[in-house]
Amino acid sequence: MNRKITLCFAIALSLFLLLPFFTPAAQPQTPTYVAQGRGGAVASVDRLATRIGIETLQAGGNAIDAAVATAAVLGVTEPFSAGVGGGDFMMIYLKAEDRVITLDGREEAPASAHPQMFQNPDSPTGEPLPFSPNRISSGVAVGVPGTVATWVEALRRYGTLGLGDVILPAIYYAENGFEVDQTFANQVQQNQERFSAFPATAALYLPQGKPPAIGSVIKNPDLAKTYQIISSQGINGFYRGEIGRAIAQTVQNPPTVETPPFPVIPGGMTLDDLDRYETRVRSPLVTEYRGYKLYGMGLPTSGGITSSEVLNILNGFDLPNLDRVKAWHSVIEAQRLAFADRNAFLGDPEYVDVPLAGLLNPDYAQTRRGLIGDRAPANEKEFRATAGDPLPFQSDPSPSLTAVPKTATIGDHEGLSTTHLSVADRFGNLVSYTLTIESTGGSGMVVPGYGFLLNNELTDFDATVPHPNTPEPSKRPRSSMAPTIAFAPDGRAIAFGSPGGSTIITTVLGIGCNLMDFGMSLSDAIAAPRISQRNGGGTQVDSGFEKTELGKELMAIGHLLEPMPEIGAATGVLVNPDGSMVAAAEPSRRGGGSAMTVSR
Ligand code: GLU
Question: In the chain, which end has fewer C-beta atoms inside a 10 angstrom radius, N or C?
Answer without folding.
Answer: N
